[in-house]
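hey can u check if this looks right to u? its 242 residues, i copy pasted from the old doc so theres a chance i mangled smth
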Amino acid sequence: MIIFPAIDLKHGQVVRLAEGDMNRATVYGDDPAAQAEAFAEAGASHLHVVDLDGAFAGESRNRAAVEAIVARFPGHVQLGGGIRNAEAVEGWFELGVSRVVIGTAALTDPDFVKDMARTWEGGIVVAVDARDGMVATAGWADISDVPVADMARRFEDAGVASLLFTDIGRDGMLKGCNIDATVELARVTDMPVIASGGVKGLDDIRMLTIHADEGIEGVITGRALYAGRLDLGAALAMAAGA
């Protein structure tokens, strides 16, 4: 199972939001590349980066920060936030990003996502962000009437690498990951699922490893690391055992 330390970018700074609210951001640093390097030194081989400004704008807003992260992180960088056209997808892969996360466009233009999954085999992750079981888009500002499972099933057999499931109500709140909903999503689809939202400590990692063979590919953690609630080395060791 993969541990993805998270670097969320707002105005070039490393931040964490509470429940996806841009007005409830805690700043953890102004050097995203240094933070990426620190995660690498702690043993991380994967990184999850989100351009929060881009998610709301529909296009990249933190490109310089992402470029610096990719240059200094020796492992795999997974990037999301405002990626909604083929040119943007191609540009990020050319820069050196390993996987691109698409959320809003997955709901509004699923054929585009399927085309990208065929073009960039193994490189496209679909973000299934949910509030009360319904898919959220546009930086989580809009809530649709599409259930999470229905959204996920649209991309079965489309070549999508993984689903990234986030419980928005828990994100950045240290309430604990929504294990039940994450595992249920993995059970109803044939795609691997990455857990996200609310990780508060090593117990969340342990519970997810128990279900790793049911389709849980990995887990994204941010605030728990920055707040000192989760030791990255211990999490990586536990995940390796899964």
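The first strand starts at residue 2 and ends at 10.
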